[in-house]
Amino acid sequence: MPTAAANIGVVGLAVMGSNLARNLASREGNTVAIFNRSYEKTQGVLDAHPEAGFIPAATYQEFADALQKPRTAIIMVKAGAGTDAVIDELVKVFEPGDIIVDGGNAYFPDTIRREKAVRATGINFVGAGISGGEEGALTGPSIMPGGSDESWVTLGPILRSIAAIAEGEPCVTHVGHDGAGHFVKMVHNGIEYADMQLIAEAYDLIRRGTGKNPAEIAEIFAEWNKGELESYLIEITAEVLRQVDASTGAPLVDVILDQAGAKGTGAWTVQTALSLGVPVSGIAEATFARSLSSHPEQRVVAGALPGPGEEFTVPADQVDAFIEDVRLALYASKIVAYSQGFDEIRAGAAEYGWNIELGAISKIWRGGCIIRAQFLNRIADAYAETPDLPVLMAASYFAEAIGRAQAAWRRVVVAAAQAGIPAPAFSSSLSYYDGIRADRLPAALVQGQRDFFGAHTYKRIDKPGTFHTQWSGDRTEIEAVDTH
Ligand code: NBP
């Protein structure tokens, strides 16, 4: 039996697992045991990285024997059946008090189920969202762990040692119990969808409105990256737009097929939001925009449908002003997308009984992950000032920013509609903004309609109680039994 020399282990040595294992091994005090279902991968990682001092294991039993107690193992395998298979094996060789961490992209209800099942054995189970892709796994990801307080005692220092650092603080916090970490990671990805779609709409409007080429637009994004929009996504957008295709000499963006893929986390965010009754319209439009793009058979047929007819051209003397309008529209829409995402986290926490500190979440997204941005400091400030803020964008900093941007935002949405340029995330974000701030909504009429066809009843603004109008009778109003 090998001596238990490792303080942490990694199961699954594909790109994410091997990079995370190397990251762990590079930090002072860590000795890392590694295991992969097929041993060739373990051997490959060992051969390629002798400097890491990995302790290889050929079986789950050897892996368990190599770990100091409480044993701590991070699973980085294909989410779904692979995760369940590994958990089943680890539970056989681990003991009560040990800790199993799933660092894959699990759907949070699976994490809730797994945590409950594993907890029954006395072993701790922690679902941890890890963001930052393969580069982040190696150099420092943003980590969103759930699980018990007990496991956090052991796990906290280890995860802090490998996380990205933003402004001196590690990008990891104990998000909440059971599935809270994977829930927050899911919403992170949903916000990422919205942010990417908004940037894509800004690019499209500038390109079609001003005729600037991708390299010129790259310069605009690079400039924007110096101001309030500063973020990883804006930075890489400039890089992508600058790239020239080696085989054709054309801008790379012009030779990439315009059908956006998705791995499902955006859809999960929207499905969950629908169940929770939280309007995440920006994330939903971004997810649908990818779906729309990926139906070439429909797009070919619909290509014959009429548009507005006239070419959209911004007059030369208004180009700079138009670009500034687009920048402001992007900023305002981005505030809406983040506000909606945090609303979903707030609602999820209430539904599942998680004590999630929203300001701490914005801080751990400042480094390592795809949506890292300066802007997240402003979100942290807003929650520090008012921890139970009902709507993030109502915080004074964001209210002021939207106030500054809204005239431009409206002009851009109008221009897009008139020009026949799709801007679903810009326009739905503006509609959300106008909806949430409205003094009175036509929801009153919807309630009337519901009462008419289904006797669903309504409440009145002037007195308590629940009411029904006898639509098919004499149309007098009666007090109804409140079924809600
Ligand atoms: P993959 O998602 O491609 O999974 C491959 C790994 O899963 C291999 O180690 C494979 O072992 C193992 N595996 C499978 Br498949 N079925 C298994 C089973 N039944 N028992 C044991 N092991 C099994 O790896 P990845 O791209 O490195 O991602 C790992 C996790 O990290 C995933 O959940 C992913 O969603 C998540 N993630 C990925 C990224 C990213 O940027 N790629 C970012 C954030 C999170 P084998 O070698 O024996 O086949």
Automatic annotation (TrEMBL):
Positions annotated to bind substrate: 105, 131-133, 188-189, 193, 263, 290, 450, 456
Source species, domain of life: Bacteria
GO molecular function: NADP binding; phosphogluconate dehydrogenase (decarboxylating) activity
Annotated ranges, domain 6-phosphogluconate dehydrogenase C-terminal: 181-472
Gene3D superfamilies named among the record's database cross-references: 6-Phosphogluconate Dehydrogenase, domain 3, N-(1-d-carboxylethyl)-l-norvaline Dehydrogenase, domain 2, NAD(P)-binding Rossmann-like Domain
List of catalytic residues: 185 (proton acceptor), 192 (proton donor)
Residues in coiled coil: none
Binding-site positions, NADP(+): 12-17, 36-38, 77-79, 105
Entries under Pfam families matching the protein: 6PGD, NAD_binding_2
Pathway entry: Carbohydrate degradation; pentose phosphate pathway; D-ribulose 5-phosphate from D-glucose 6-phosphate (oxidative stage): step 3/3
Record keywords: Gluconate utilization, NADP, Oxidoreductase, Pentose shunt
EC number, as in UniProt: 1.1.1.44
UniProt cross-references to SUPFAM superfamilies, sorted A to Z: 6-phosphogluconate dehydrogenase C-terminal domain-like, NAD(P)-binding Rossmann-fold domains
Keyword hit for Transmembrane helix: no
Reactions catalysed, as given in the entry: 6-phospho-D-gluconate + NADP(+) = D-ribulose 5-phosphate + CO2 + NADPH
GO BP field: D-gluconate metabolic process; pentose-phosphate shunt
Function of the protein: Catalyzes the oxidative decarboxylation of 6-phosphogluconate to ribulose 5-phosphate and CO(2), with concomitant reduction of NADP to NADPH.
Stored NCBIfam families: gnd, PRK09287.1
Assembly description: Homodimer.
Assigned protein family: Belongs to the 6-phosphogluconate dehydrogenase family.
Record-given protein name: 6-phosphogluconate dehydrogenase, decarboxylating
Gene: gnd
